[in-house]
Amino acid sequence: MASDYLWFEGIPFPSVGFRIEDLKSVKNEFVVRDEDFITLSYPKSGTHWLLEIISLIYSKGDPNWVQSVPMWDRSPWIETEEAHEQLQKKEGPRIYTSHLPIQLFPKSFFDSKAKMIYLLRNPRDVLTSNFYFFRLLSGVKHPQTFDQCFEWFLQGNVPYGSWFDHCQGWLQMRGKENFLVVTYEELHQDLRTTVEKIIQFLGKKLGPEELNSLLKHVSFKAMKDNKMSNLTLLPDTIMDHSQGKLLRKGS
Ligand code: A3P
Questions:
Q1: pLDDT (tens digit, 9 = 90+) per residue, 197-240?
Q2: I want to staple 173 with a disulfide (CB 3.0 to 4.6 A). Which of 41, 66, 132, 179 is the partner?
């Protein structure tokens, strides 16, 4: 059971693509800069959707970047192997992603002015998405039934630990100027208004045509067909593409 994961400070991580030394270094040594932008979420909250939106805000609605560069190069997950080393060397403003719980996130963030969006999704849909997605991945425990998945989810015996602890931890940051909470549900209900809120938070400006182009390219259909964003570029050794997809239902 537990041996299927890589454990760090009581939190289970997939045993493929993660190393204890990276997790330690990210927490204690990674230097967050004031001009950084970070997307933070519990897995299966719609992270890739938000990342596509962020990419298209940075490219002012021009789809070239999202159609030519994989998601993980546009906004790397700092806790994964080598990503934080590459990010440390990168000059200029950086955008990156993380699923880390607050206690494992780089300490330097809490004294910085770096902006962060915390993406929330209701736990019922996170759980369902988790059930269908993690069975495609290597290095992760695969539940036999939905009930077993539910039990593990409640126990926090899933990648990145308990959803409840994750939200409770990060939501303590609510009210800080550099911290914005966005929900999957509001993206779903009113994408345009929510994207406008994000643009404002980032201090960016998009004209009406740029915004329309962004909205077109972040639709479920557009992202499902974009191999730079739908994870189909991941090798079969990491994700079993014959068993399912990242963009499963999206509702
Ligand atoms: P479902 O499994 O419920 O379909 P994450 O990126 O954090 O792993 O989250 C994946 C979830 O976000 C999946 O949910 C996926 O379908 C949904 N998603 C991804 N892109 C989307 C989009 N453009 N519109 C709506 N939902 C999207």
A1: 999 999 999 999 999 999 999 999 999 999 999 999 999 988 99
A2: 179
Domains of the chain from N-terminus onward? 2-243 (3.40.50.300)
Ligand 1 site-directed mutation target among 42, 48, 249, most atoms within 8 Å of CB: 48
Nearest residue by C-alpha to atom 15 in ligand 1: 247
* Residue written as token pair 């759980």: 127
Q: How many whole angstroms separate alpha carbon 18 and alpha carbon 118?
A: 22
For the segment 1-56, what is each residue's pLDDT rounded down to a tens digit? 434 899 999 999 999 889 999 999 999 999 999 999 999 999 999 999 999 999 99
Q: How far apart are CA 192 and CA 205, in angstroms?
A: 14
Contacts of 149 (CB under 8 A, 6+ apart): 127, 130, 131, 143, 158
SS percent in the chain: helix, strand, coil, step 5 = 45, 10, 40
Interval between CA 125 and ligand 1 midpoint (Å): 10
Contact by Cβ (8 Å): 109, 38: yes
Residue type present at position 209: E
Q: What is the reported pTM?
A: 0.96
**Complex ipTM value:** 0.99
Q: Which residues are bridge partners to 41 per DSSP?
A: 119
Measure 89 CA to ligand 1 centroid, in angstroms.
31
